[in-house]
Each structure stands twice: as structure tokens, then as C-alpha cells.
Amino acid sequence: MGQPSRARVRCCGDPPLPSLDVQQRLLQQLPSTSASTGCIECEEALRLNQVERRRNVGLAIASSLAAASLYTYQRMNPLNPLVLLRQLEAQSPTLPSALASGRGTIVEFYAPWCVSCREMAPCMQRLEKRYGSQVNFVVIDGADPKNAQLVQSFGVDGVPHLAYISRERKLQTTLIGEVPEKLIESNLLGLL
């Protein structure tokens, strides 16, 4: 199996152990050879204690480096849903070009302050990756004043607001609020 443990169980009647510094000072006061003191176990226990202390310091340093690396990675690669929404918006075609493509189109209106919009962002990204070659995904910031005319023409009175437009440029379905991915996908399949 394994080596027997060198630790011994302390009981409530044992005197408290001296700190590591006190143990080291006591060890320095001992004669240089353990044979003359007859306390090989004490020296071995102190040596093991020092090894364990070095190991613990090494683990603390390694843990700190790992935490710093993870923090840096997350800062460099944000998983912030608002950043994701902005990326989807920047990459999406304009509404006129999407409608002119002859494919079905999903128009998603969002607002930066909308919690549901941010929660749905990863779902919309997955669907766009899966169906982006068959259906247009247009993402519009409904809170941006430059999009006020689109907001009005689609009758957006709450976000998230998903408008499904057929190849024939007819509004098929509108979903408002946080909607399960399966429902979004099933309506999307009607545009194919």
C-alpha cells in the first residue's frame, strides 16, 4: 500500500507544540550530531515540517499565479453578454441587405440595460452559428436613437423583441421577452 504515516495524533493532555521558529532555535541549540542527543525522531520531524512548509509556500505561489493567469485571460477574452450583443450587432447585415438576400430573417431588438437580452445573447449566438448560412440574423440596439424609426415600424414595446420575416418579406411571428431557445429555434425553422 503506502508508507506508514509519520504523524502522530495529539491528545488534549499533550502540551502545545512550539512554533516552527521556536523548533528551529531549539534544534540549533542541540549538539551537531543527533546520535549524541538520541533524538533522531525530533530532527526528522523538523525536517519533514520544513519540507511541508516549502511545499505549502510553493502551492501558495502556484495558486496565486494560476489565479492571476485566469484573471488576465478573462480580461482579454470577456464573456460579457453585452460585449457579445455588441459583436453580434456589428457583424450582422443591415436590415435592407438582409431583406434583399431572399432568405428568411430574424431581427433581434435589444437594449444594453436589458437583463433578458444579455441572458439570451449566448443562445442567439449558438443559433446564428448553426443557421447563419440559411437565415439572416440582424441585431439592432433598440435603445439607440438612430434606430428609433425601426423600433417604431416594428412596434417594439419591449425587449428582447424577435421579429421573424419570411423570404417574401412578410412578418411571420414576433416573440417578446426572454424566450426558451427551443421556441426561438422552432420559429426559425419555419423560415427555412
Automatic annotation (TrEMBL):
- A GO BP term, please? cytochrome b6f complex assembly
Any one Gene Ontology cellular component term annotated for this protein: chloroplast thylakoid membrane
**InterPro entries given for it?**
Thioredoxin-like_sf (IPR036249), Thioredoxin_CS (IPR017937), Thioredoxin_domain (IPR013766), TxlA/HCF164 (IPR044241)
This entry's Gene Ontology molecular function terms read:
oxidoreductase activity, acting on a sulfur group of donors, disulfide as acceptor
Name the Pfam families on file.
Thioredoxin (PF00085)
UniProt superkingdom: Eukaryota
The Thioredoxin domain extends over: 59-192
The protein's matches in PROSITE patterns, at most eight in alphabetical order, are given as: THIOREDOXIN_1, THIOREDOXIN_2
PANTHER family, per this entry?
A: THIOREDOXIN-LIKE PROTEIN HCF164, CHLOROPLASTIC
How is this protein named in the record? Thioredoxin domain-containing protein
